[in-house]
Amino acid sequence: MEYGKLIEKAIEARKFSYSPYSHFCVGAALLCSDGRVYTGCNIENRAYGPTNCAERTAIFKAVSEGEREFDAIAIVGGEEELVWCYPCGVCRQVMAEFCDGGRFKIICGKSPDEYRVYTLNELLPEMF
Question: Which of 44, 55, 67, 69 does the annotation list as catalytic?
Answer without folding.
Answer: 55
